[in-house]
Write a structure and sequence with these properties.
Layout: H1 14-26, H2 31-46, H3 58-66, E1 75-80, H4 92-95, E2 98-103, H5 105-113, E3 129-130, E4 136-138, H6 145-157, E5 165-173, E6 176-177, E7 186-187, E8 189-194, H7 199-204, E9 210-214, H8 228-246, H9 251-254, E10 257-260, E11 266-277, H10 280-287, H11 313-320, H12 327-334, H13 352-355, H14 360-384, H15 387-402, H16 424-438, H17 444-460, E12 465-466, H18 467-483, H19 485-489, H20 500-503, H21 508-515, H22 523-540, H23 546-569, H24 576-580, E13 605-607, E14 613-617, E15 623-625, H25 628-634, H26 640-652, E16 676-679, E17 681-687, E18 698-706, E19 715-716, E20 718-722, E21 733-746, E22 749-761, E23 774-777, E24 779-780, E25 783-784, E26 786-790, E27 794-798, E28 800-802, H27 820-823, E29 827-829, H28 835-840
Parallel strand pairs: 5-11
Antiparallel strand pairs: 1-2, 2-9, 3-4, 4-12, 5-8, 6-7, 8-9, 10-11, 13-18, 14-17, 15-16, 16-21, 17-18, 18-19, 20-21, 20-27, 21-22, 22-23, 22-26, 23-29, 24-25, 28-29
Helix pairs in contact: 14-15, 14-16, 14-17, 15-16, 17-18, 22-23
C-alpha cells in the first residue's frame, strides 16, 4: 500500500526534504557551513516568534537522509584472496587478504526495477522494430539480437520461465585517479545497469547506472612491476572479485524471482549477464587475451583487420582439449591467456567475449581520431617538409582552429591544439572543426580519410540505426580503410595498422545488431559517473581513509534520488520543483528572463520539455524602439521600413490586399504597429536524441544576436531556415545570419521575426572532398541580400566554417574569431557540429 500523498517521511514536510536535498546534493555544503546557515536561519525566525528552523544542525539533516527507506543499498566489506597453494616464501601480495567493498546486487537491482522514474522508458521484453519502409531498426538495448537470443534460450532451457521479464545486466568498470596533482590515488569502481531502460535514460539519469563495488587494486614493490605472475594474480583476483559479488543472484539467473517494476506491477524476472562497458586495457583483462590482440576475434596482430573468427568459450575449450596445445602456444598463436579464468565461467549463459561492447569514447574519439589520425598528420608534415615549414603549416592549422566562429557549447581552441591535458571533451570538440582546418594544407587523400572516418563516427553515434544506416556505416568504413593507405604509402605507417582500438571499428556493425545503438553502452557513461561516485565524494572527504566516507556519500545520494522519485511518483513533489532543485533544466517559462541571467545556459543541453521543434525569444526584450525608423538607425539598415512592409504583406496574405512599399506618412501601415521590441537572444528546443538530451530526447540551445558578447566582440549567429519540407536534408534548408531579433503587434497579433542576411548554396551537392555543403554570401548589387523572416521558419542554430583555401600563412596571429563570418568568400555548413546537424545537413 502506497503512503498518502502528504507523507514526506522521514522528513516532516516538503521544505525539509528540499533543504536537505539542496544542501547535501546540490551545494555539497560543509558541515560547519550548514550549522552556520541553520543558526542564522533560526535567528531570523526568532523575530517572528518561532524557536527553531527546519533542522537543528548538520547531523539532524544527515540522520534524516539516513532514515530514508527508498534506495537503501548498504555497502558491505568482504575479504577476498585466491585459493592457491601458497608457501611461506611467497610474496606478500600473494598471501594477503584484500578488502572488497560492494553492495548486494539483488538489492541494487530491486531498487533499479522499482524506480517509478523509468516508467514509460522501460522495455519488459526484447523486440524487433521495423519502420514503415520495411527496414529493421536498432536503438535501445532490447532491440538488439542478443537480448532476443538470450530470452529465447532461457525459455527453451526452462519452459516454466514463460511470461517472465528478461533483465539483461550491464556492467562497466574503469580505473580513475582522484589526486589531480600527483595522480597517485586511484580507485576502480564497478557499475551496474540494466538493458531494459532506454539508452537516453542510461546516459542522462544518475540512478540508471549505480556503483556496486570498488574493486581491489593490489600493490607491490617495484621489482614486481613487470612480473608475469603478479600480472596474472591481479587479473585473476579481478575476476574472482566480480564472481563473488554476483554469486548471490546466480539462482535468479536460472529461475524467476518476483520483483516490482517501474509501472508498479509485480512480475517474474530472470537476470542475465548481457554486456560489459570497458576500454581496451580492461577488455584485455576481462577476456583473458594478450595485449595487442583483439578481445573479440582471433585476428592475427600482423593482419588485425583481416578475416578471423569470433572468440568463444567453445573455441578455447576445444583448443585446450588438443593434446599438443600448451598455454604458450595459445598465447603466441591465438592470443589467449589461458591462465586467467573469466568470471563469466561461474554463471549460466554468460560469455565474456560476446559481452564486450563497442566503446565510442576510447576506440573512436580518443583512439582513432585523436591518438591516431591527428598524430599521423603531424608525423606526415614532419616527414615531407623541412622542420620550419612543417611547423609553419601546423601553426596555420592551429590559427584556423582558433578562428572558428562561435557556437553554443563549442569549446574554443584559443591556441590551437597546443595544450598538454587532453580530455574526451577536447577530442570531441576538435572532431567538429578539424576537417575545414586541414583542407587545402594537406593532400586530398588525407582530407577524404578524415571525412570518411567522421562519417563513420557520426553514423554509429546515432540514437537509432536502421539497416540502411548499417550499410552506410560499412561503406564509410571501407572508404576510411582505402584512404588511410595514404599514410602507409607516405611512410608514416610503414608497419601497417596493427592497432586494436582502430581495428575494433570492424566489429561495430555486428555489435549494433547485438546491442542496439552504441551510444547506450559507451564508456563516457561510466566516466561521467566517476564524477558523482568517486571524484566529488573524495573531495568532500577529509582524505583520511576516504573510501568509507565516499561510500556513505554515495549511499546518501542514492537515497535522496530514490526519495525524490517516490515523492514525484505519488504526487507529493510537483515536477516543476525538479528545476528548482537543479535536477532537470527549467522549462522556457522558468528560464531566466533577461540576458544577464541566461548566460549560465550558454551551452544549451538536455531538457525534458516536450515539443517537436520550437524557437522562442528571450522572455524580456533588451530594448523597445518607438518605430521602424529607430530600428533602421540602430541596425544600420535604411531599407528596414521597406523590408518590414514586405514582411507584413507576406504574413497577412492575399486576402488582406497588398501593402504598398511607399513611405507616404498618411497611408503608411507602419504607423499602426506597436513599438518594436528588440531581443539579444532566442532559444531553440528540438528533438535530438543522439546528442546530450533529456530523458525524452529533447535538447535546447541558445541563439545569440548581440553587438557585444562577453567583451569579445559582436555575435550574430547563423540559423537553419526551412525552405521546402518536401526535399531531403540541406536541399530543403538554407542558412541565414541574424542581424536583429524583433517582435511587434499589428491588429492584435504578435509577430516575432528576424532580420537576416542570406547565403546561397555553391553547387547542387556537398563538396566531394569534405562531404559538407558550401555556401557563400548572397549579394545583390554589391550588397548583402537582407530580408525579414518569421521566427517560426527558423529550425535551429547553424554553424559555418570558413573555406580557408590552400594559402598559408593566411590567418593573422591576432585574428578575432568573432570576425570570421565577415571575412571569407565561402563557408562550409558544418554538419559535424553535433549529431542533429549531421542528420539534417546532409
Amino acid at each position: 500500500m502506497e503512503p498518502c500523498n502528504d507523507d514526506w517521511s522521514p522528513f516532516e514536510d516538503e521544505l525539509q526534504f528540499c533543504i536537505a536535498d539542496f544542501l547535501y546534493r546540490r551545494e555539497e555544503m560543509s558541515q560547519g557551513n550548514i550549522n552556520t546557515l541553520l543558526n542564522l536561519w533560526g535567528l531570523s525566525l526568532m523575530k517572528h516568534g518561532a524557536t527553531f528552523g527546519p533542522f537543528d544542525n548538520y547531523q539532524h539533516i544527515f540522520d534524516a537522509i539516513d532514515d530514508i527507506k527508498q534506495g537503501d543499498a548498504p555497502w558491505k566489506c568482504m575479504k577476498v584472496s585466491l585459493n592457491e597453494d601458497i608457501n611461506e616464501a611467497a610474496a606478500t601480495w600473494k598471501k594477503q587478504e584484500y578488502e572488497l567493498w560492494h553492495r548486494d546486487p539483488d538489492t541494487v537491482l530491486t531498487n533499479l526495477l522499482s524506480n517509478p522514474d523509468f516508467d514509460g522508458q522501460f522495455d519488459y521484453q526484447p523486440y524487433v522494430e521495423i519502420d514503415e519502409k520495411g527496414n529493421r531498426q536498432w536503438g535501445d538495448f532490447m532491440s538488439g539480437n542478443q537480448a532476443w537470443r538470450k530470452a529465447e534460450r532461457i525459455f527453451n532451457e526452462d519452459k516454466t520461465t514463460r511470461g517472465s521479464a528478461y533483465i539483461p545486466l550491464i556492467l562497466g568498470s574503469d580505473k580513475t585517479t582522484v589526486s589531480v596533482a600527483t595522480g597517485d590515488i586511484e580507485y576502480h569502481p564497478l557499475y551496474l545497469s540494466i538493458g531494459n531502460v532506454h539508452n537516453n535514460v542510461r546516459r542522462g539519469h544518475r540512478n540508471a547506472v549505480v556503483p556496486i563495488a570498488f574493486l581491489v587494486i593490489p600493490k607491490a614493490e617495484r621489482k614486481y612491476d613487470n612480473d608475469p605472475d603478479f600480472r596474472r594474480f591481479k587479473r585473476q583476483l579481478y575476476h574472482a572479485s566480480i564472481s563473488a559479488i554476483f554469486a548471490s543472484i546466480k539462482p535468479y539467473m536460472q529461475h524467476p524471482v518476483v520483483r516490482r517494476c517501474p509501472d508498479g506491477h509485480f512480475r517474474r524476472v530472470v537476470y542475465d549477464f548481457a554486456a560489459f562497458i570497458a576500454d581496451y586495457p580492461e577488455q584485455v583483462m576481462l577476456a583473458g587475451t594478450v595485449q595487442g590482440w583483439c578481445p573479440k576475434c582471433t585476428a592475427q596482430p600482423a593482419d588485425i583487420d583481416g578475416r578471423a573468427g569470433p572468440r568463444t568459450n567453445e573455441l578455447l575449450d576445444g583448443l585446450l582439449g588438443v593434446d599438443i596445445m600448451t598455454y604458450q602456444r595459445l598465447w603466441d598463436e591465438y592470443g589467449f591467456d589461458a591462465s586467467v579464468i573469466p568470471f563469466t565461467r561461474d554463471f549460466p549463459r554468460a560469455e565474456i567475449y560476446e559481452m564486450l561492447s563497442s566503446d565510442l569514447l576510447h576506440q573512436v574519439i580518443k583512439g582513432t581520431f585523436k591518438d591516431h589520425l591527428v598524430t599521423w598528420v603531424e608525423e606526415y608534415l614532419k616527414l615531407v617538409y623541412e622542420k620550419a615549414e612543417a611547423n609553419e603549416i601546423m601553426d596555420e592549422i592551429d590559427r584556423r582552429l582558433a578562428a572558428v566562429p562561435p557556437f553554443s557549447g563549442l569549446r574554443r581552441f584559443k591556441q590551437g591544439r597546443r595544450f598538454k591535458q587532453w580530455t574526451g571533451d577536447d577530442s570531441k570538440a576538435l572532431m567538429k572543426i578539424y576537417l575545414a582546418a586541414i583542407k587545402g594544407l594537406l593532400p586530398s587523400e588525407v582530407v577524404k580519410c578524415f571525412s570518411a572516418f567522421l562519417e563513420f563516427c557520426y553514423l554509429v553515434r546515432r540514437n537509432n540505426i536502421d539497416s540502411t544506416t548499417l550499410s552506410d556505416i560499412q561503406k564509410a568504413l571501407q572508404r576510411f580503410h582505402h584512404h588511410r593507405e595514404f599514410f602507409r604509402q607516405a611512410g608514416v605507417r610503414e608497419d601497417g595498422f596493427s592497432l586494436p582500438r582502430q581495428h575494433s571499428l570492424v566489429h561495430y556493425c555486428e555489435n549494433i545488431r547485438n546491442f542496439g545503438a552504441p551510444n547506450g553502452l559507451c564508456s563516457s557513461i561510466t566516466e561521467s559517473h566517476h564524477i558523482t561516485a568517486v571524484k566529488k565524494p573524495w573531495r568532500r572527504s577529509n582524505r583520511y581513509e576516504a573510501l568509507g566516507q565516499m561510500l556513505l556519500i554515495n549511499q546518501r545520494l542514492d537515497k535522496l534520488a530514490a526519495a525524490r522519485s517516490a515523492f514525484v511518483a505519488r504526487g507529493n513533489l510537483a515536477p516543476e520543483r525538479l528545476a528548482l532543485l537543479g535536477v532537470v533544466q527549467p522549462t522556457l517559462e522558468q528560464t531566466a528572463s533577461n540576458e544577464g541571467e541566461v548566460r549560465d545556459w550558454e551551452g544549451g543541453g538536455a531538457t525534458d520539455e516536450r515539443v517537436l521543434a520550437d524557437v522562442k525569444m528571450a522572455q524580456t526584450a533588451h530594448y523597445v524602439f518607438p518605430n521602424a525608423r529607430a530600428v533602421a538607425q540602430e541596425i544600420n539598415l535604411p531599407l528596414f521600413p521597406t523590408l518590414l512592409r514586405r514582411f507584413l504583406n507576406e504574413q497577412l496574405g492575399p486576402d488582406e490586399g497588398e501593402i504598398d512599399d511607399s513611405e507616404d506618412e498618411d497611408d503608411d501601415i507602419l504607423k499602426y504597429l506597436s513599438p518594436i521590441s528588440s531581443y539579444r537572444s532566442a532559444v531553440a528546443t528540438f528533438f535530438a536524441p543522439s546528442d546530450i538530451c533529456g530523458t525524452r530526447g529533447m535538447r535546447r540551445e541558445w541563439i545569440r544576436c548581440t553587438p557585444s558578447w562577453r567583451n569579445s566582440g559582436p555575435r550574430y549567429d547563423c540559423v537553419y531556415l526551412v525552405e521546402d519540407e518536401s526535399k531531403p536534408g540541406f536541399r530543403g534548408l538554407n542558412v541565414v545570419r541574424l542581424k536583429a531579433l524583433l517582435s511587434f503587434r499589428y491588429e492584435g497579433t504578435e509577430y516575432p521575426c528576424a532580420v537576416v542576411e542570406w547565403f546561397k548554396k555553391v553547387g547542387r551537392a556537398p563538396d566531394p572532398t569534405t562531404g559538407m555543403w558550401v555556401v557563400k554570401p548572397d549579394m545583390s548589387s554589391g550588397e548583402r541580400d537582407v530580408t525579414i523572416v518569421h521566427i517560426d521558419s527558423i529550425l535551429r542554430s547553424a554553424h559555418l566554417l570558413p573555406v580557408y583555401g590552400s594559402q598559408y600563412p593566411l590567418i593573422p596571429p591576432k585574428f578575432k574569431h568573432t570576425s570570421s563570418l565577415d571575412c571569407f568568400n565561402a563557408y562550409y555548413v558544418n554538419k559535424y557540429i553535433d549529431h542533429h546537424a549531421n542528420e539534417i545537413a546532409f
